[in-house]
C-alpha cells in the first residue's frame, strides 16, 4: 500500500495522542462538542446583528449551502468510498469513536464548520467576528484529525466543498431552492 502525504501527516499527528492529557481533552472537546457551540454562536450573532430580512436571507443561504454540500458529500462517499483511519490502520490511537465508519471523505464536520464561517464572511461580518469564526472552524477541523477519525485529505475535501457551495449559495437560492419552494407551496395549497 502506497502511503500518501495525508497518511504521513495523519500518523505524525496521531503519535501525539496520550502525551499530554489536557491537550487530548481539549482536542476531544473540539472534535466532538465545539461544532454545536460554534453553530449556536454564529446563529446568535446573526440574530443579534442582522435585521429581520437579512437574517432570513442569511438562514436561507446557510441552509442552501449546507443542503447541497452535504448531499454532495454523501454522494461522493457512496460513489468513491474512503474508510476511516481506524479501519485501515487498527493500530492507531483514537480518542473518539465516530457514529459510522463507512464515510471518511470528505469531513462533514469541516464542511459544516466552514459553511458557518464562509456565509458570515460573504454577508459582511466584521474582521474580529470572522477571526473568531475562523478559529472555531480550524479548531474543529484539526481536532477531527488529532482524535483519529479523519485524514488531512478529508479536511481538505470538506473545506473545498464548503467554500464551493458557500460561493454558489446565492445562485442556488435564487435559481433552485426558492423556485422549488414556490412550486411546492403553490402545489400543496
Automatic annotation (TrEMBL):
Which residue intervals define the domain Phosphatidic acid phosphatase type 2/haloperoxidase in the entry? 58-170
InterPro entries in the record, alphabetically? Answer: PAP2/HPO, PAP2/HPO_sf
Going by the entry's taxonomy, the superkingdom of the source organism is recorded as: Bacteria
Q: Indicate the transmembrane segments per the record.
A: 25-50, 57-80, 114-143, 155-174
Known SMART domains for this protein? Answer: acidPPc
Q: Kindly indicate whether the keyword Amino-acid biosynthesis belongs to this entry.
A: no
Q: Which Pfam family, an example, fits this chain?
A: PAP2
What does the UniProt keyword field contain?
Answer: Membrane, Transmembrane, Transmembrane helix
Q: What is this protein called?
A: Phosphatidic acid phosphatase type 2/haloperoxidase domain-containing protein
Organism equals: Candidatus Magasanikbacteria bacterium CG10_big_fil_rev_8_21_14_0_10_43_6
Amino acid at each position: 500500500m502506497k502511503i500518501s502525504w495525508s497518511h504521513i501527516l495523519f500518523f505524525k499527528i496521531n503519535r501525539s495522542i496520550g502525551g499530554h492529557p489536557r491537550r487530548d481533552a481539549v482536542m476531544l472537546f473540539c472534535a466532538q462538542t465545539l461544532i454545536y457551540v460554534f453553530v449556536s454562536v454564529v446563529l446568535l450573532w446573526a440574530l443579534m446583528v442582522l435585521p429581520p430580512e437579512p437574517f432570513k436571507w442569511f438562514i436561507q443561504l446557510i441552509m442552501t449551502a449546507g443542503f447541497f454540500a452535504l448531499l454532495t458529500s454523501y454522494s461522493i462517499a457512496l460513489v468513491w468510498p474512503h474508510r476511516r483511519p481506524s479501519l485501515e490502520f487498527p493500530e492507531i490511537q483514537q480518542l473518539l469513536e465516530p457514529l459510522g465508519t463507512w464515510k471518511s471523505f470528505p469531513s462533514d464536520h469541516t464542511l459544516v464548520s466552514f459553511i458557518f464561517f464562509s456565509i458570515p464572511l460573504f454577508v459582511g461580518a466584521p474582521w474580529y467576528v470572522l477571526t473568531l469564526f475562523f478559529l472555531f472552524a480550524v479548531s474543529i477541523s484539526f481536532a477531527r484529525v488529532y482524535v483519529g477519525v479523519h485524514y488531512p485529505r478529508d479536511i481538505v475535501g470538506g473545506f473545498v466543498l464548503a467554500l464551493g457551495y458557500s460561493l454558489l449559495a446565492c445562485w442556488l437560492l435564487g435559481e433552485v431552492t426558492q423556485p422549488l419552494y414556490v412550486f411546492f407551496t403553490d402545489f400543496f395549497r
